[in-house]
Write a structure and sequence with these properties.
The protein has strands spanning 15-17, 24-27, 31-38, 44-51, 54-59, 63-77, 82-86, 90-93, 98-114. The protein is built from no helices and nine strands. The chain has a single domain (19-106), classed as Jelly Rolls. Strands 1, 2, 3, 4, 5, 6, 7, 8 and 9 form a nine-stranded antiparallel sheet that branches. The chain starts with 14 loop residues before the first strand and ends in a 6-residue tail after the last strand. It is an all-beta fold. It is 0% helix and 58% strand. A hairpin with a 4-residue loop joins strand 6 (63-77) and strand 7.
Length: 120
């Protein structure tokens, strides 16, 4: 039987990590993620995430929906266009997005990822 998963009471364990050293541009962006759900095929997942101040390069192979709960994030695309997100904002980074994430103020978000099947 399938059950609804409430993040607040989930037994999922958080994991702490940093971006790969070659991707870090500034600061020490320590991140903590808790995967509360992953679909059976592994293509969809949802959870919570937090990060400390810092800037790093990103390359999205999946589409990600984010709802920022705390902090300030500046997302810059490869053409240099910047968008600032603050607590309460929601946004999507589509698969194929490349650019940088800058955590201006320590941030927390809820997220959902979808990794589309690759075509041969």
């Amino acid at each position: 039987m399938k059950k609804v998963i409430a993040f607040a009471t989930s037994a999922a364990e958080p994991s702490t990590y940093r971006p790969a050293p070659e991707r870090i541009l500034a600061g020490d962006p320590v991140q903590t993620a808790t995967l509360h759900f992953t679909s059976e095929d592994g293509r969809f997942s949802a959870g919570s995430w937090a990060a400390e101040r810092g800037t790093w390069r990103v390359v999205f192979t999946e589409s990600e929906f984010c709802h920022l709960l705390e902090g300030v994030i500046v997302v810059t695309d490869e053409a240099g266009a910047q968008t600032t997100f603050r607590a309460g904002d929601a946004f999507v980074s589509p698969a194929g997005f490349t650019g940088t994430w800058e955590i201006v103020e320590p941030a927390r978000k809820l997220f959902a990822f979808y990794e589309a099947p690759t075509t041969p």
